[in-house]
Design brief:
By secondary structure, the chain is α+β, with helices and mostly antiparallel strands. It has ten helices and 18 strands. The chain has three domains: 134 residues, no CATH class; 74 residues, no CATH class; 78 residues.
């Protein structure tokens, strides 16, 4: 999964007409008049749109979620400080499959429409920022290793939330549909991605028991704080938020600092921070202490601090 850059677009709040969900509570989609699009986006789309689409184009969005980034992280990514909520805006779906050149795909407004992006709102749900996602080698948003997406999760997540994949690199691999996983979203009674992520399937969402389902995967966004050195206390590799349960872990897991926290796998806590290299497990509570500089204190509390006193 390539990393992503969040690139500022030229869209303004006044460009969008938002649609609300059936109960009138949440934003479910948007429409934009084609005549208000920037020159590059209008030049690309107009010849490829069906006659019924040439007045306005429509997009669907995920359920809104509160912003999980700090002010410093918002600043690093170039997102406005007023951002309090955000949604993922899925690629637009048109009657005719859009053809986009590599050059056009680097234009932010085009990328937002054909690949998707994030929309950021203030505390009153007024749109403040629109960012396109652009795949790149060293982007600001990075993903952890691929994780197995279980077949039963596809329908549990909601068949109507899956959207056609538009990234050429993924389409070449046979990926058919994807969905945005919200931060801390519960799927089949488990939290899969603490910071959000994407799930990809290789078949129709309604198809059950097909061989292609064995290829379905998801990627979680890496915790930006983990990237800054809050990794494994033994080897410093980045810890994964994982439910890995194979081999020696078939019977569950026990926190490295169990003597202090008494935490182990339960039905309510099937996931933990995991280092595959060291086969080391850290519960969420102890991980929080590691992030705040408590690694030496944890080692001392469990009798594992072998350093000499000054």
């Amino acid at each position: 999964m390539p990393s992503l850059n969040l690139v500022a677009t030229n869209f303004r709040s006044s460009d969008f007409n938002f649609e609300m969900s059936g109960d009138g509570g949440d934003i479910s989609g948007w429409s934009v008049k084609v005549e208000t699009l920037g020159f590059a986006a209008r030049r690309l789309l107009t010849p490829q749109l069906h006659e019924s689409e040439k007045d306005a184009i429509k997009g669907a969005v995920s359920e809104a979620h509160h912003v999980t980034l700090s002010e410093e992280e918002l600043r690093d990514l170039g997102i406005v400080r007023e951002a309090r909520y955000f949604v993922f805006s899925y690629p637009i779906v048109t009657a005719q499959e859009l053809t986009v050149s590599t050059k056009d795909s680097q234009i932010a407004d085009v990328a937002f429409l054909v690949f998707g992006g994030y929309m950021y709102f203030d505390s009153d749900m007024v749109l403040k920022d629109v960012r396109a996602v652009v795949p790149t080698i060293d982007g600001g948003l990075r993903f952890g290793p691929p994780q197995k997406w279980m077949p039963e999760w596809t329908l549990d997540a909601g068949a109507d939330r899956w959207r056609p994949v538009t990234l050429p690199s993924l389409r070449k691999l046979g990926v058919r549909y994807f969905t945005w996983l919200r931060p801390d979203e519960i799927v089949n009674d488990s939290v899969l991605c603490r910071s959000g992520g994407f799930a990809y399937i290789f078949h129709e969402p309604s198809e059950i028991g097909v061989l292609q389902a064995q290829l379905d995967i998801y990627f979680g966004l890496e915790d930006r704080e983990v990237e800054h050195g809050k990794g494994c206390p033994q080897c410093s590799r980045i810890l994964e938020w994982s439910d890995y349960n194979e081999g020696a872990y078939e019977g569950g897991w026990t926190c490295e600092y169990h003597e202090t926290c008494a935490q182990a796998q339960t039905d309510e806590a099937p996931l933990r921070w995991f280092c595959a290299h060291c086969q080391l497990d850290v519960c969420d509570g102890c991980y929080a202490r590691l992030k705040t500089g408590g690694a030496r204190r944890l080692l001392h509390d469990t009798g594992a601090d072998t350093g000499s006193a000054a």
